[in-house]
Structure formats: structure tokens, C-alpha cells
Design brief:
Elements (H helix, E strand, L loop, with lengths): L8 H41 L7 H22 L8 H9 L1 H36 L2 E4 L3 E4 L1 H31 L3
């Protein structure tokens, strides 16, 4: 690749596919936000007007917050919206673009390692909640299984891992190709 060469077509196709998947997860997270808003408002209206609250709202909200974060984290990373300082990387990019690309590869490798550790720790928690039928709530009032949230953590973490890998691969292709 020469200087300023575009990323390869195969990479761009792969990134489009992964972006479509993470966009779908993001949409599911947004729909879950809307559902929780409706649920909380129904609870408030039921409690205020009819003295009849909706059972399990605190449990559903707490589980949904975790699910929403993991459904939307990969898209957040892909769009460059995760909190990150740009002072030093921006300074380096303007003066040494190849060093910047190398640092981005190192960042991606470190982030992938961290996400891999999280996945390795979360897998057994999902299996345990599935096998044991672990639930949230109070028997006789409201109960909900927690395995769907544990599964969403695995799916969202995997999507984030793939997005970070693509980010690192783009930086590596830039570094190898000499692209600014």
C-alpha cells in the first residue's frame, strides 16, 4: 500500500457487516430504553391514580440498565463516543502518524485483552444462571430469570471485542501500508 492508500475492500465489507450487527444491537438497546420508560410511567400512574403499582419495576429497571449498556457499548465504541482523551494521540498524529498507528494497535491489543478477560469471567456466570434457574425478585410477588441479561453481557462484550479488533486491524493496516 502506498501513502494515503484506502483500506482494502475486504476490510471495508467486513466492517460494514459488523457495523450492521452492532447497529442492530444498539436499536434493541434503544427499544429497551423505551420499554423501561413506558414501564416506569405505568408504575407511577398506577401507583398514583389507582393505588396499584406494577410489580417488579425496580428489578426490571436494574436488569435492563445492564442489558442496555451491553447492547449499546459496541456501537458507542465504533462511533468514537466512548470517553477517551485525544490530547496526546492528536499531538502524536500530527507529528508522527506511524507512531500514532502503532499506539492505536497497542491500545486495541490491551483493550481486547481486557474484554477477553471479562468474557472469560462472564461465561461461567451465564451458564450458572441458566443451569440453576437463578432469578431476580421475590417469590410470590415478581420473579424474572437473570440468564437473559447474562447472555446479553456475553453478546455485547463479543460485539465490542470484534469492533476493537477491527479498530486495531485498521490501525495495523495503516501502519503497514504507511497510510496517514
Amino acid at each position: 500500500m502506498e501513502m494515503n492508500a484506502p483500506l482494502p475492500r475486504w476490510f471495508l465489507r467486513l466492517r460494514r457487516f459488523v457495523d450492521a450487527v452492532t447497529t442492530g444491537l444498539n436499536v434493541l438497546g434503544t427499544l429497551l430504553i423505551v420499554a423501561i420508560m413506558v414501564l416506569v410511567n405505568s408504575d407511577v400512574i398506577g401507583r398514583t391514580l389507582f393505588d396499584a403499582p406494577v410489580s417488579g419495576v425496580p428489578e426490571m429497571v436494574s436488569m435492563s440498565i445492564v442489558a442496555i449498556v451491553f447492547l449499546q457499548i459496541a456501537q458507542t465504541f465504533a462511533k468514537g463516543r466512548l470517553t477517551r482523551t485525544e490530547a496526546l494521540p492528536g499531538f502524536i498524529l500530527n507529528r508522527a502518524p506511524r507512531l500514532h498507528a502503532a499506539l492505536e494497535v497497542l491500545f486495541a491489543l490491551a483493550a481486547m485483552g481486557l474484554i477477553a478477560v471479562m468474557l472469560r469471567a462472564s461465561g461461567p456466570l451465564f451458564v450458572k444462571s441458566w443451569v440453576r434457574g437463578t432469578f431476580e425478585g421475590t417469590i410470590g410477588d415478581f420473579t424474572a430469570p437473570i440468564w437473559p441479561v447474562k447472555l446479553i453481557i456475553l453478546i455485547g462484550s463479543t460485539a465490542l471485542l470484534v469492533q476493537i479488533a477491527l479498530f486495531g486491524l485498521a490501525a495495523l493496516l495503516t501502519l503497514i501500508g504507511g497510510r496517514k
